[in-house]
Amino acid sequence: MDSQKVDMFIMTYGKFFESHQIIGVRESLKNADESKWAIVQSISFKDPTTSLIVSLLGGTLGIDRFFLGDTGLGIGKLVTCGGFGIWTLIDWFLIMGAAKGKNLSKLMQALA
Question: Vertex 81, ends 48 and 47: CA angle to 5°?
Fold first, then answer.
């Protein structure tokens, strides 16, 4: 893929990935076929900041996990009231990383 497109993608969507993942994302995009560009542009990434806000407001009900697409974990948090509050507290620190991990897996799946 054209390096100018790759740099534009990194500048636009860099906040959706962990900082240590950016180099791998850049290399994967550079090695990808030009036909994958339309697919990459159509991916809707989950904003890590939004996932944190959702977790702070509705984490006890599992809404943050439903937001990320983790239906099973969302149901688990809903049934246990956020793991009796413990799971909710832990997710406040981990949910942004989970969102960035989901974004990376979406991108790699599109490039495969």
Answer: 10
Q: What percent of the chain has pLDDT over 70?
A: 100
pLDDT tens digits along 15-35: 999 999 999 999 999 988 888
Domain chopping of the chain, boundaries: 3-111
Q: How far apart are CA 30 and CA 41, in angstroms?
A: 14
Prediction pTM value:
0.86
Can you spell out the DSSP letters for 9-75?
Answer: HHHHHGGGS-GGGHHHHHHHHHHS-GGGHHHHHH--PPPHHHHHHHHHHHGGGTHHHHHHT-HHHHH
Per-residue CA distances from 7 to 31, 68, 94 (Å): 13, 26, 28
Copy the structure tokens of residue 72: 């099973």
State the pLDDT at residue 3: 86
Residue 53: CB atoms within 10 Å: 14
Type of residue found at 85: G
Average pLDDT, integer, range 44-63: 94
